[in-house]
Amino acid sequence: MSNDRLKAFVEKVGSFKDVSYVAVSSEGLPYMIKGTERENAEYVAAVASSLYDRINELTMALNLGKEERSKIYYPEDYHMLLFKKDNFVVAIKYDFAIDKLIEALTNNLLKGIEVRCPYCKNDLSFDVVKCPKCGERLPFTEPKCWNCGADLTLKECPHCGNLIYYNGQKPSFIKLLIYKLKRIFGG
């Protein structure tokens, strides 16, 4: 089950245009790689485990505590996020502009947050939607837009188009009626 969620995470996040690669390694061997910079990703996957361990050694030596995840900042506006999931080390290189999005999707993976559409049963935990007001990209699991504060508690499933809550629950008939009337009359 956990391995399937990790694969789903890698497939979704690795397909973003702002992500250079997602590299997953197990015991120093590349396990899964997705993205445009495959050669770099293979190298990072090979050293990710020792890099993660070394960063944790340094933070412990400085009495900063054990890190759940580590972020490396590149000078050309890229970040790399390193974290451990079970016995895998995951490295994601991405554009700084989607930092908050990557953090939220990573939280969904690490905390085991799973949201399924009650109609089509698809996993929406790593799906991304756009705010209808400002166009900001957000995880499906967010109830409000980070940028403009728009209420996004009720949204369409990206797979089947049915209206559901951000946490995967079905809305009541009255809620659906109010939502549709607001859309018709611009409220």
From TrEMBL:
Domain Putative zinc-ribbon: 114-138
Pfam families for the chain: Zn_ribbon_3
Protein name listed in UniProt: Putative zinc-ribbon domain-containing protein
Organism: Ignicoccus hospitalis (strain KIN4/I / DSM 18386 / JCM 14125)
Phylogenetic classification of the source organism: Archaea, Thermoproteota, Thermoprotei, Desulfurococcales, Desulfurococcaceae
